[in-house]
Amino acid sequence: MNGMRLRPALLPSGGRPGPAVGVLLAQRRAATPQRVAFAEGFTGRAVTWGQVAAAAADWSAQCHRLGVAPLARVGIVIADPLAAATAHLAALAAGVTVAPLNPHAPAGELAAEIRTLGLSAVVTDGGAAAGFDDLAAAGAQVWLTGPAGLRLVRLRPWPASTVSPGPAALIMASSGTTGPRKIIPLSEAQLVGTAAAVVAHHRLSPDDRGYSPLPLFHINGLVVGVLSTLLAGSRLVVDGRFSRTRFWSVAEAHDVTWVNLVPAMIGLLADSAPPPAAVAERIRFARSASAPLAPATLGRFEGRTGISVLETYGMTEAASQIAANPLERRRRRPGSVGFGVGTELRVVDEAGRPVGPEAVGSVEIRGDHVVDRYWAAADDGLVARPARRPGGWLATGDVGRLDADGYLYLAGRTDDVINRGGEKLYPAEIEAVLLDDRRVTAAVVVGRPDPVVGEEPVAIVLAGVPPADRRRLQADLEERCTRALSPFKRPVEITVAETLPAGPTGKVRRGEVRRQLRPQLANRGDLR
Fold first, then answer.
1. Side by side, which strands form the sheet with 183-186?
2. Cα–Cα distance list, 206 to 221, 288, 400 (Å)
3. Using CA atoms, how far apart are residues 507 and 515, in angstroms rounded to an integer?
4. What is the pLDDT of residue 60?
């Protein structure tokens, strides 16, 4: 099962083989022009496949008129989810290199991204945090778009092209938390091929209606959400933000059949009012990605909602999905992200040698949808650098183990491992114990420097308890860790915090926790 190789049926691998997205859009326009493609959950606004295809044709015509060269790098900074979904498909069909950017980022951050990625133009709907002048000042043209088309609102001299390290359909910059920032280039073949694997594994059909409140400047929302919907010819409900209080009413209003979530959202819904019985019966699965899902949280969600959770694993370097549990509920294994879907998986030791079942090591992946190069900034623009190791394997930076049947269990990131006197501690194992307490809504464990043992584990949790009850919670969590963990794995300190730094999907930024909270922990021992 974990030895499958991805061979996209629609496209050959690598490079920029042709306008596959454009062809698919033309097929949708010819077959089902009035069928709704994307709908906004809160307002009910919608665009049809005919409108999306027309927008793509308009993009191509405008790019030709303006002299935009094929593979020119164009940033998409769009807050409106309908316009964002339409713009990404239109840009791919027009043959430009798409760079999705966070529309809510401050002007300085967006300007830095524009320069790092060497963008020639930026497309926005006017809903971005930065204004037109701020974006234009970063050195790019600024275009305005909506669900129905594209028009130029700020025109600057077209900048001289920076050195191109090769073709790409989509580029994203890594967060840079584990080293220098890298730019990840993905071909249209890789994007469409992975979306095809999602459609096949999830058995998506034209009758499906997905609901994805995930941001469309992340690979999950784009490939698992937007592109898989195009390939399946189905419908996707999109939202600019997640709302725990309105989530089930949106799912009910749109007759949703599957939902695309991350663990933070699943945890919130697990402790909220359940959906109506008819809604739960209609939803085939709730897909979980982005971070490991604690088994306790999974159990609470399924018990509260009656909807089964499909745990998966992905990353930008693989155009999103790498592994997934079987669609058949009886074959799923809680705590596991499943087996490779169109991806070869292996776990290796520190010397790069494959280890046996149940041995913990570094996770590596291989497949046609996995990038073979990174881009990096250089004096004269961007240069390409190899991404894979000999044999075609890419190191994911994750730590995990494979069981005898090929199911993968993640233990954390390579840089997150805590070395306590020679013993290796994996934060995910400790965090799962803390999350077993229903009062805990989020938990993160980091290493604090210690002059004797090198590092010691410290836990920070968020919990729905009043301040007067926090000491009792701390005592209960310490007792829970004593019962469930070996002495060397137990946190030396458990702190209840008001907030934790998190990304747009709710995933805790562990590196930021280390940078911001470790000095406070070391000096005060109290974050309350």
1. 149-154, 141-146, 121-124, 73-77, 97-100, 170-173, 183-186, 373-378, 381-386
2. 19, 22, 36
3. 16
4. 87
- Find out whether 404 and 411 touch, Cβ atoms under 8 Å: no
**Tokens representing 516?**
């911001």
Q: What is the pLDDT of residues 275-295, one digit of tens each?
A: 999 999 999 999 999 878 888
Q: Are 81 and 225 in contact (CB under 8 A)?
A: no
pLDDT in tens, 319-351: 999 999 999 999 999 899 999 999 999 999 999
Query: CB neighbours (10 Å) of residue 381?
Result: 14
For residues 512 and 142, what is the distance between their CA atoms, to the nearest angstrom?
32
How many angstroms separate the Cα of 86 from the Cα of each of 54, 68, 122, 153, 213? Answer: 10, 19, 15, 19, 16
List, for residues 447-456, the tens digit of each pLDDT value: 888 878 888 9
Give the DSSP per-residue string, 508-519.
Answer: B-HHHHHHHHHH
Question: Do residues 186 and 211 lie in contact, with contact meaning Cβ atoms separated by under 8 Å?
Answer: no
Q: Are 259 and 287 in contact (CB under 8 A)?
A: yes
Alpha-carbon distance of 376 to 183, in angstroms, equals 6
Q: Give the residue from 258, 317, 318, 243 showing the smallest Cα distance to 288.
A: 258
Distance CA 184, CA 478 (A): 42
Across all residues in the chain, what is the average pLDDT?
85
> What was the pLDDT predicted at 192?
95
Residue 93: partners with Cβ closer than 8 Å, 6 or more residues away:
19, 21, 22, 25, 56, 59, 60
Q: What is the pTM of this model?
A: 0.84
Distance, in Å, from the CA atom of 513 to the CA atom of 115, rounded to the nearest integer, reads: 27
Domains contained in the chain, CATH given: 49-166 (3.40.50.980), 188-415 (3.40.50.12780), 417-523 (3.30.300.30)
Angle at 231 between CA 225 and CA 232, to 5 degrees: 85
CB 371 within 8 A of CB 184: yes
Among 17-21, 364-368, 426-430, top mean pLDDT goes to 364-368
